[in-house]
Amino acid sequence: MKIYLSPSKQTANLYAAGNTNEQSQCNLIAAAAEKALRRCGFEVKKAPEGQEIEESVRQSNAWGADLHMPIHTNAGGGRGCVVFVSRRSDDRLAIAQPIYDEIDAITLYRSAYGVREKQFYEIRNSNAICAYVECEFHDDPELARWIIANTGALGEAICRGVCRAFGVEYIEEGSENKVVRWNSLEDMPSGYREMAQRYVESGALKGKNDGSLDLSEDMLRVMEVMRRYFEGEE
Predict the structure, then answer these.
(1) Where are the alpha helices (DSSP H) in the chain?
(2) Which pLDDT value is given to residue 25?
(3) Tens digits of per-residue pLDDT, 19-31?
(4) What pLDDT shows up at residue 176?
(5) Residue 192 has what pLDDT?
(6) Are 183 and 214 a contacting pair, CB within 8 Å?
(7) Which of 68, 80, 110, 192 has the fewest Cβ atoms nearer than 10 Å?
(8) How many CB atoms lie within 10 A of CB 1?
(9) Any idea what DSSP says for residue 175?
(10) pLDDT higher than 60, residue 224
(11) What residue spans of 14-134 are helical by DSSP H?
């Protein structure tokens, strides 16, 4: 699944706080989204900072993206997120609505905007379904400060929405390297259960005083390699 991220290039859109602008903050959001999406197994391309939207669309189309996602922050006196699509068809809503929901769940105020129709350049010209994300309003000092402090959280929210849209498990940051430990034979996948059963029955694997095995996959693999070595198995 290919996701093309196209963050804002609008340096003239100044934030109401933080001495920053839309391009800078949206590139941080896009970078966080890219990292999270890769962690969850997506192929991702992010447009270079400041790239013209025409070139971003050309790259997205040439690559064969499944989803083209411009990432922006908004202005005009409102608050809350909005996601734009070319039309509110079932296939577009199936992608845009989860993205909207996940962003809306973390912003300071619930949004009244939802998923709406627009015909911006990237929406009209991308071959992939385009979900044009406006994360929050940057012309309010409170909201501008919130965006600056939460670019990482916004990237993760975008990723959660994309995962929901495409039926992919969202993997939390850090959990991809978490060691899974099994406390009983019943906890283990069947292949490992049969392997461990031999060690339990032979008395080689006794576990802790409370009866828990506290065994990781790597530990069990090492035990099996050593057994085969000493027993002369190929």
Answers:
(1) 22-39, 53-63, 90-104, 121-125, 141-149, 151-166, 190-202, 217-231
(2) 98
(3) 999 999 999 999 9
(4) 57
(5) 75
(6) yes
(7) 110
(8) 16
(9) G
(10) yes
(11) 22-39, 53-63, 90-104, 121-125
Residue 129 tokens read as 């379904």
Confidence of residue 37 (pLDDT cuts 50, 70, 90): very high
Residue entry with tokens 């965006």? 147
Residue type at 177 in one-letter notation: N
Decide if 114 contacts 100 (C-beta within 8 A): yes
Contacts of 84 (CB under 8 A, 6+ apart): 115, 116, 117, 118, 120, 123, 131, 132, 134
Structural contact between residues 23 and 88, judged by C-beta atoms closer than 8 angstroms: no
Q: What is the mean pLDDT of the chain?
A: 91
Q: How distant, in Å, are the alpha carbons of 124, 170, 191 from that of 163?
A: 24, 6, 29
CA-based Rg of the chain, rounded to a whole angstrom?
24
Residue written as token pair 């409370």: 210
- Other CB atoms within a 10 A radius of the CB of residue 99 amount to 25
Token pair for residue 40?
A: 């969850």
Is residue 200 predicted with pLDDT exceeding 60?
yes
Instruction: Please give the helix or strand (H or E) that residue 82 lies within, else none.
Output: strand 82-85
Token output for 77? 């006196």
Quote the Cα angle for 31-19-29, to 5°: 15
164 closest CA partner among 74, 83, 101: 101
